[in-house]
Amino acid sequence: MNKNKFFKFFLISLISIVFLFLILITFNLANETENWKFLGLDFNNKYEIISSYGSLIGGILSFLSILFVLISLVQQQEQIRNEKDEKLIDEKIELLNRLKLLSSFFTSAIDNIELQGKQMKQFFEKEKEFPSQMNQMYFTTNKNFSRVIDLDSTSIYKAINYNFKNNNDWEKIFLNIYSIFDFYSDAILELKEKHQSQINFKVEEQRKISNDLMQFLNLGANLVDEYKINIGESYLDQPWSNLVNEFTPEYYKYLEECVEKNEPTDLRTISNLYLLPFLENAMDIRQEYGYDNFGSRSLVNLSSYIRKRINELEVNCVYYAENIEKQYNEYFSIENDNSEKLKKYKKLFDEIQN
């Protein structure tokens, strides 16, 4: 029993005693009157007794009023203390709920990091193996990183301070949480913007190379026509005409196979399996016969230029893929330090809740 409850009990007991005393006095006064009747007091013959009784009653009632005031004050003080205790309990629950909310965000963030990491890993592995193909990297649309940043940082600070006040590193925990969520909120956005920029660059380069390949085929077709016009039926006996005539159907056959298999054309395949043999044979023909007057030099120069453009594109794409791999290893792999910290903090928060 605390001090206020004891005092309240004492006052109520005292009031009860005073009431009993008052009843006893009144009973004795009634016995002083012969042939007593209800409200039939003899004011003429019992004036002194009644006067004394009235004075006594007045004093007792005054004393009782003081006691009632004291009880009222005690009750008010107890009510204020109870309201304060309830407020503290509500604040404690609110601070604990903040930790529960953060713990939920930790779970989502860890899953989001690992999911994005899988997308990155799939991308850079394909990009390094097939750099000239249009490989895609998909991005998660979860906004929990920014949601944590948008939370009231003061309330989060209080929640961590209150629940981990016995932990010397509680302030470090708070700073690390915001540092991690700040980083990933910006990192994923930056990663997405750079990837879109890389895709745009790659599409544009592939378009230019495709235009160059079409120009190469047109030059080849013109060369064969020139031989047919100037040489006649034996035009395919000419080395340059024969070289182009063998290249063109093989190249179109490859394009048709890609369409049938529903696969994109691979510039590396075109460069290594079609343009490179063409150039090697062209160099042999040039060594023996030299260039002709129907565009063979232009074909050789253009095919060499196309291979160079394809190689530059692949070098750029491989470099980009290696950069993505580096970011993956440091920040998005399952074993990365930030994910491990979030897992550690989530475990601490869950233990507090239990």
From TrEMBL:
UniProt source species: Flavobacterium flavipallidum
What keywords tag this UniProt record? Membrane, Transmembrane, Transmembrane helix
Which segments cross the bilayer?
9-30, 50-74
Name of the protein in question: Phage abortive infection protein
